[in-house]
Amino acid sequence: MGTLPGRRNIPPWVKVPEDLKDPEVFQVQTRLLKAMFGPDGSRIPYIEQVSKAMLELKALESSDLTEVVVYGSYLYKLRTKWMLQSMAEWHRQRQERGMLKLAEAMTALELGPWMK
């Protein structure tokens, strides 16, 4: 039971109305959006073209999550959802590793002999 997405330009590979029914929906941490989709979502058209799906992002109120809605034929939307979830996990782990390295560096600086 899907609703029409709030956009005017539906890509030519999306069949209206059958591909707009029953979209795949998942949530992504908002802080990962820029890494996944580029500044201001600049990579979204490319991702849509390659995946033959249509994406819609919806910010969730009072949450640090954004809902990603994927429209398209059954196989394309499942594949696109899997790809985007994998990208989100990769970026999340990458940011987490960066924070661990930063914490280690800060700890090393605090433990220097000149600080004792």
TrEMBL record:
Name of the protein in its database record: Embryonal stem cell-specific gene 1 protein
Family: Belongs to the KHDC1 family.
GO cellular component assignments: cytoplasm
Family matches, as InterPro entries: KH_dom_type_1_sf, MOEP19_KH-like
One MF term in the entry's GO annotations: mRNA binding
UniProt keyword Cytoplasm present: yes
Domain KH-like RNA-binding per the UniProt entry, residue ranges: 11-95
UniProt cross-references to Pfam families, sorted A to Z: MOEP19
The UniProt record lists the keyword Secreted: no
Function: Involved in the maintenance of embryonic stem (ES) cell pluripotency. Dispensable for self-renewal of pluripotent ES cells and establishment of germ cells. Associates with specific target mRNAs.
UniProt keyword annotations, A-Z: Cytoplasm, Developmental protein, RNA-binding
Organism, scientific name: Macaca nemestrina (Pig-tailed macaque)
